Amino acid sequence: MSPVCSRTIGLDIRILVLTTTTFAVLLGIGLSVEHLLDNDHYNPGFDEFPLTITLHVVLGALYLGLAAFQLVPRFRERRPEVHRVIGRVGVGFGLVSAATAIAATVLFPFSGRSTIVFIAPFAVTSDVR
């Protein structure tokens, strides 16, 4: 396979991943906002702890949005100082989003406190890397 063809396939895969990720993030944000604005929540924890869920949704969306820039090689090469700042800010957003997810799992009656056993290891390992 020629180098030009190889680069084209790599670019196609990156575009597919970026498009799919963008769609998933926007869909998640839209559904979360719709659910937050609705008065009839299926989970009473949304009404009892609105700050927890709002921080989780907003900071999680910002984390995912900033993470996309971290994966672009041209951006890392041309603007390493901005790449580092975005990385540090993104890690902060990710940690707070993970902490609020764990808090929601513990506090919300719908999920039950026993689910923390299953959720915490995933949250810790996904944000520590």
Topology record:
Blueprint: H1 3-37, H2 45-48, H3 50-70, H4 73-78, H5 80-107, H6 116-128
Helix pairs in contact: 1-3, 3-5, 5-6
Please tell me about this protein's structure.
- The structure is a single chain.
- This protein has helices spanning 3-37, 45-48, 50-70, 73-78, 80-107, 116-128.
- It is an all-alpha fold and 129 residues long.
- It has one domain.
- The chain starts with a helix and ends with a helix.
- The model has no long low-confidence stretch (mean pLDDT 76).
Instruction: Write the H/E string, N to C.
Output: HHHHHH
Tally of separate helices: 6
- The secondary-structure class comes to mainly alpha
Helix fraction by DSSP (H/I, runs of at least 4) = over 70%
Sum up the overall morphology in one term: globular
Report, as a whole number of angstroms, the end-to-end distance. Answer: 34 Å
Mean pLDDT, as a whole number?
76
Q: Major beta sheet, specifics? A: none
β content, as a range?
A: under 5%
Q: Evaluate the radius of gyration.
A: 18 Å
* Strand runs, count: 0
Provide the number of structural domains: 1
Q: Could you name the ranges where pLDDT drops below 50 across 5 or more consecutive residues?
A: none
